[in-house]
Write the structure tokens for this entry.
Amino acid sequence: MNEVLVITLLVISIFTLLGCGVWVGLTLAGTAWIGMEIFSSRPAGDAMAVTIWGAASSWTLTALPLFLWMGEILFRTRLSEDLFKGLAPWLNRLPGRLLHTNVIGCAIFAAVSGSSAATCATVGKMTIPELTRRGYPESKILGTLSGAGTLGLLIPPSIIMIVYGVSANVSIARLFIAGVIPGIMLAALFMGYIMWWALRNPKEVPIADEHLTFTQKLKQSRHLIPVLILIAAVLGSIYAGVATATEAAAIGVVGALVLSGLQGSLTKSSFYQSLMGATRLYCMIALILAGAQFLTLSMGYIGLPRALAEWIGGLGLSQLGLIMALMVFFIVLGAFLDGISIVVLTMGVLLPTVQAAGIDLIWFGIFVVFVVEMAQITPPVGFNLFVLSGMTGRELPYIARVSLPMFFLMIVAVFLLYLVPGIATWLPQNMRL
């Protein structure tokens, strides 16, 4: 069999169906069916039924709709708005001042969300009007928010990490822990860029607000307490080894409902909207996962993973060369597909090659999250770009252009991750799970 012919046919099938407006999940399943019918002797219908049932009934995947629901609750209640009130008084002394609320706000919300788009939309809803009113440049407001929103994928709990963990059969709890230090590192890089820009362009930074005493700052910080309690409950239960990722997600949902109820911002309408929003999003993701699992099975029967592994192995790439080649591959793929589709579509093919190269699968999971983050701010299918365009009315190319510094900082972060792998592997190796 000519593997090049098979790959060409499958790629043409995928992009033809996507170009016709077919849903991603159905596109993946349809392409898998075509591949099995033409290049395999196994009945495609039987294989599809077994694979889709197996993908849909995974207990590990239960964490996904729960984390989605928790994020929706926060998005639709007053808990998210309290972030800005608690953070703003502490940032006036830093170069760049309140622009840092985009980064820190996204980092904090990412620790109770898991979705890049939800993080970007929630924090943007608070900071864009406020920073615009105070006179901060629109390009920096949107650029930093677009980049910082990607922290929703890296700082646990993370939807992409759950999807990768299921696809690669690695511990989701260890993946969550592995994302903590890289997430802090990336947030620090973003804040460092803001300070560097502010020091070079002092006239573009508005004057500081009135000086508050330390006591007044502490009083304002009380708004952060509910969100910090929720973070401690969700991540603390995982890190202490007393809860699995699924159980921690359930704790997060109950905690978000209780806190928003105590604040008086949980209504019948917001409860219903959060539940339906999480249901719609999970159904979309579940369909993509089911289609991708079937495509992975189809490619296994055809023999593509083995052929691809042999081809890449025959290139004689070093470990760094393989990582760089995969980074370019994922960035190009991210221009056409969303992050979840990228992960579930490629893992079955790439993991044998990655393991053969001696790359740790936990470390590789964090690397994948980084490159998927880049896809969130690259056109034409950059979800954070879509979110900000819808919120501000600005055209997509403009938002992509002002996000470029964040994109390059992510590339720097990938190199740091490669040079110092302990950034991703030290915590999982030293935490009790």
Summary: The mean pLDDT is 81. The longest helix spans residues 268-302. The chain has 24 helices and no strands. The CA atoms of residues 89 and 217 lie 6 Å apart.
